[in-house]
Structure to design on (169 residues):
């Protein structure tokens, strides 16, 4: 398999994992809202996080291919969102765990879409737009992880270790 095909394969895998993460964040949100099933919500959030990590790893593998082309001076990537740890300016004060899960799901959807676009460009060997789409996907992935982390913090603050999730720890 050539490098070119690997970029497309990694984008497809990243897009798939982002869609899975979005699904699990929506399930977690639903369990909070409807059923008040906090243990199941926490489990869904954990699954979302695992898929997010897989998506980022696959996106990084795809992006490495385009980084190799950047040395030629032809690739100019847009600025990624701030790289300092977490992104506190993104979260308005008072967002609930439900809101953070919804925001994470939306960012995973956007990251998936950008990976799909990157794969289309990659198939045509259009490396500049593919690399730009990969960078945009990475930014949304970081935002998604931020909101997932904030949802987890909200859960711990409101339900604690001895609360409804004690049976899964």
């Amino acid at each position: 398999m050539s490098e070119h095909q690997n970029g497309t394969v990694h984008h497809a895998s990243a897009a798939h994992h982002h869609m899975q993460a979005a699904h699990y964040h929506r399930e977690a949100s639903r369990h909070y809202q409807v059923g008040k099933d906090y243990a199941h919500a926490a489990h869904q959030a954990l699954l979302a996080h695992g898929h997010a990590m897989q998506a980022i790893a696959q996106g990084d593998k795809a992006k490495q291919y385009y980084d190799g082309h950047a040395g030629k001076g032809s690739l100019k990537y847009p600025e990624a969102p701030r790289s300092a740890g977490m992104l506190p300016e993104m979260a308005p004060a008072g967002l609930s765990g439900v809101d953070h899960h919804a925001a994470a799901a939306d960012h995973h959807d956007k990251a998936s879409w950008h990976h799909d676009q990157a794969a289309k460009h990659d198939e045509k060997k259009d490396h500049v737009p593919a690399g730009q789409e990969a960078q945009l996907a990475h930014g949304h992935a970081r935002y998604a992880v931020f909101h997932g982390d904030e949802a987890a913090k909200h859960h711990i603050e409101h339900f604690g270790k001895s609360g409804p999730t004690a049976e899964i720890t």
About this structure: The two ends are 42 Å apart (CA to CA).
